[in-house]
């Protein structure tokens, strides 16, 4: 019995030792990555926006605000919300790469109408209110249908991901039964390709070093970024035609 206990104890100690080594290795790799790259920052979105126009639809403002925030932080498209008027035409222009109009037309039985080639879509909330849903239920329906309209507009389609809002739906019950109220990352690639064709801005995750080289990096926020900033600055001091451009009027911390 003692032999078995000793063997188990030894095995546990060996496992713990290997676990500690793995943690050390992971910490060392992270340290090396931070020293080399300075970590990651979000590159600003430059280009046209997705314009969401609420044509006095009566859609819950909470759902609209939540949708705008989710799109800007998920697939990271530049997106804005504006008020519009029923019956007016809103189409893409020099500032708007895509337009999603929200209306309330009780004479129209269709919920989502999409023209992917023109990067235009409309969401009619009238069919979502036919059964007098609760405020919470309507909120969920509007949020889900906004995402479905956006994905279809930007070239994405249905998928079978269990938790994705883009599962095939027939009728309002299927919409209500969706487990999530926003798209999973599965269609983001197709959406990004379409957005690029229409000149729609999309923020991207990149290294702090690359941001310094490209000239739009924010001031260093920690020691790793300060080191990278100084390295890039020194490298570019030999290339006066392409100097580093930290934001105008700002200096790196610690200086």
Total number of helices: 7
Architecture of the largest domain in CATH?
Answer: 3-Layer(aba) Sandwich
Sheet with most strands: strand arrangement: 3-2-4-6-5
Predict the CATH topology of the largest domain: Collagenase (Catalytic Domain)
Count of the domains: 2
Name of the CATH superfamily of the largest domain: Collagenase (Catalytic Domain)
Unreliable spans: none
- How many distinct beta strands? 7
Radius of gyration: 25 Å
Kindly provide the name of the CATH class of the largest domain: Alpha Beta
Principal-axis shape equals elongated
- Estimate what percentage of residues fall within beta strands: 5-15%
Rounded mean pLDDT is: 86
What composes the largest sheet? Answer: 5 strands, mixed
* First-to-last CA distance: 65 Å
Oligomer: single chain
Order of helices and strands: HEEHEEEEHHHEHH
Helical content (DSSP H or I, runs of 4+): 40-55%
Question: Please, could you describe this protein's structure?
Answer:
The protein folds into two domains: 49-197, Collagenase (Catalytic Domain) (3-Layer(aba) Sandwich), CATH 3.40.390; 205-255, no CATH class. A hairpin with a 4-residue loop joins strand 5 and strand 6 (120-124). The protein contains seven helices and seven strands; from the N terminus they run H-E-E-H-E-E-E-E-H-H-H-E-H-H. A five-stranded mixed sheet has the order 3-2-4-6-5, with helices on one face. A two-stranded antiparallel ribbon has the order 1-7. The mean pLDDT is 86. The chain is α/β, with parallel strands linked by helices and 255 residues long.
